[in-house]
């Protein structure tokens, strides 16, 4: 009987030796005459356990990790392939039964870490393409309203209702429409887009195809950052397989609907994560922010109506169509319905991916899932939502992960990245970094962002040096107000959020 052994092909796992572990298992098993099939799956998201090796058994998939290449021979000799080795540190038990996994509600990430990312057969056997078939059996307007009713909101940062955006594009008159996926995942502490594309690319393809059918688009583009070569290769391979399966092309699943999908690789500009800058880059121009209106839903790529959504938004659409809007909306709280994929990084003991319903508290994510800091020192601050997100103290760990609750607290959920800092962090330096980052990454089109960020660095330096501290703190607040109100996009408009939150919650670091 063939024994299936799973070793992740995810970039994070490969960076710590997963390729060598996979090769060592295959070679050692062959040398001992054991019939082993090594499957390269995505990561389960428990990054502190990578490389995580799973052995398929009658009880389920038994995990061992982290496994180094030099550990393989000893594990095999001890009987790892039977799944019964329990007296060694690497043994984890049945992976699905681990507390980290059991506490999650995986909808978007249901197949990530479970299937071979490039196996069309495994994708369909685990529920793939059900959503696309359900969509094609309805009218485009019905598909749009299903997404509206689900409450799905954009996962790229703003949290705008996905279905409302689609409804606008559907109603726009044009002989050509586009669907664009913003996969330029540049926020610090975020890696869910990469992990999904590397671990389950077909779900993104399916989601984009459903979006195209719903709004009447015939072409789609995934704008993927150059820093993700593994994701680029995986997605391009998946698109070719999808085309051969009839999931893309001139006649999608025999419906007569035509949709083509292309990958475009960005050149590393953070500003191209902003939707209009991304569209400029896709058109072959310098990545600069466009003034709005007009909005991309009416005049987007090449001036045509365009759906622009994040990876996680589009990848969630198939499960909504397959299971129904009500089933998805049953998760979450208030206006934040469904699940979100949170990413734990920074100085955290257990970093990785957590998909759970909106409403879980920040403290539960950092302490229960993350295990506190990796340094063992007390947590002092957490930044949520990328480099433009607010810094929150432990006193706010009771805050629920909910768009409205975070907005009321002067913060944002954003893309769900959570970066943890211990008591040694200097929050004045972190506020200064926000301005430095903005100065480096600004597209330069508007004065409040281009000049304001530079003035911000200078003002914080004067505050820290003790020069007219109170006067400069007032000046800093005025500068932040100007950037918030006067910038063309969120680059300059949100840079004040980490600065003001640092001053508000950690004033003593500024000498206040």
Offer a few descriptive terms.
Ubiquitin-like (UB roll), Glutaredoxin, Rossmann fold, five-stranded mixed sheet, 512 residues, alpha/beta, 4 domains, 16 strands, globular
What does this 3D model show about the protein?
- It comes from Kribbella pittospori.
- Keywords: 4Fe-4S, Iron, Iron-sulfur, Metal-binding.
- Pfam families: Complex1_51K, NADH_4Fe-4S.
- The longest helix is centred in the last third of the chain and has 18 residues.
- The chain has four domains: 100 residues, Glutaredoxin (3-Layer(aba) Sandwich); 210 residues, Rossmann fold; 91 residues, Ubiquitin-like (UB roll) (Roll); 84 residues, NADH-ubiquinone oxidoreductase 51kDa subunit, iron-sulphur binding domain (de novo design (two linked rop proteins), Up-down Bundle), CATH 1.20.1440.
- Helix 6 runs parallel beside helix 10, helix 17 packs antiparallel against helix 18 and helix 18 runs antiparallel to helix 19.
- The strands form four sheets. A five-stranded mixed sheet has the order 2-1-3-4-5, with helices on one face. A five-stranded mixed sheet has the order 13-12-16-14-15. A four-stranded parallel sheet has the order 8-7-6-9, with helices on both faces.
- The model has no long low-confidence stretch (mean pLDDT 94).
- The radius of gyration is 24 Å and the shape is globular.
- The protein has 21 helices and 16 strands.
- A hairpin with a 6-residue loop joins strand 14 and strand 15.
- The protein is α/β, with parallel strands linked by helices and 512 residues long.
């Amino acid at each position: 009987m063939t024994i299936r052994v799973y070793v992740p092909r995810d970039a994070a796992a490969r960076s710590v030796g997963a390729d060598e572990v996979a090769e060592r298992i295959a070679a050692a098993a062959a040398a001992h005459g054991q019939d082993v099939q090594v499957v390269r799956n995505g990561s389960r998201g428990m990054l502190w356990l990578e490389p995580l090796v799973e052995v398929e058994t009658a009880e389920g998939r038994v995990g061992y990790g982290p496994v180094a290449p030099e550990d393989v021979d000893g594990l095999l000799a001890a009987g790892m392939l039977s799944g019964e080795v329990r007296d060694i540190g690497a043994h984890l038990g049945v992976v699905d039964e681990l507390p980290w996994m059991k506490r999650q509600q995986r909808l978007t990430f249901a197949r990530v870490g479970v299937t071979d990312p490039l196996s069309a057969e495994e994708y369909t056997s685990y529920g793939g393409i059900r959503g696309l078939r359900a969509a094609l059996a309805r009218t485009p307007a019905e598909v749009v309203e299903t997404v509206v009713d689900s409450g799905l909101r954009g996962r790229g940062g703003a949290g705008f209702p996905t279905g409302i955006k689609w409804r606008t594009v559907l109603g726009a008159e044009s002989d050509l429409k586009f669907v664009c996926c913003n996969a330029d995942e540049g926020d610090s502490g975020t890696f869910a887009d990469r992990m999904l594309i590397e671990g389950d690319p077909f779900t993104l393809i399916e989601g984009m195809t459903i979006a195209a059918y719903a709004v009447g688009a015939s072409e789609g583009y995934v704008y993927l950052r150059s820093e993700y070569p593994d994701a680029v290769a995986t997605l391009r391979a998946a698109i070719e397989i999808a085309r051969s399966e009839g999931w893309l092309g001139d006649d999608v699943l025999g419906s007569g609907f035509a949709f083509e999908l292309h990958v475009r690789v960005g050149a590393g500009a953070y500003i191209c994560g902003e939707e209009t800058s991304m569209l400029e880059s896709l058109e072959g121009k310098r990545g600069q922010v466009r003034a709005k209106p007009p909005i991309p839903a009416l005049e987007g790529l090449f001036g045509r109506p365009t759906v622009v959504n994040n990876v996680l938004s589009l990848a969630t659409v198939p499960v909504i169509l397959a299971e129904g809007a009500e089933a998805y909306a049953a998760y979450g709280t208030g206006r934040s319905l469904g699940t979100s994929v949170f990413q734990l990084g920074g100085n955290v003991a257990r970093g990785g991916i957590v998909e759970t319903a909106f409403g879980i508290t920040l403290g539960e994510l950092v302490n229960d899932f993350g295990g506190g800091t990796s340094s063992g020192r007390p947590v002092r601050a957490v930044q949520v939502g990328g480099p433009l997100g607010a810094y929150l103290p432990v006193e706010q760990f009771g805050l629920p992960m909910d768009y409205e609750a975070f907005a009321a607290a002067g913060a944002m959920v954003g893309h769900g990245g959570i970066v943890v800092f211990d008591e040694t962090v200097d929050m004045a330096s972190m506020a200064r970094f926000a301005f430095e980052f903005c100065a480096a990454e600004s597209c330069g089109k508007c004065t409040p962002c281009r000049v304001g960020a530079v003035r911000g660095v200078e003002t914080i330096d004067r505050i820290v040096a003790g020069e007219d501290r109170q006067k400069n703190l007032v000046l800093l607040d005025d500068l932040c107000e100007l950037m918030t109100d006067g910038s063309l996009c969120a680059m300059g408009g949100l840079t004040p959020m980490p600065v003001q939150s640092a001053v508000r919650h950690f004033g003593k670091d500024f000498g206040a």
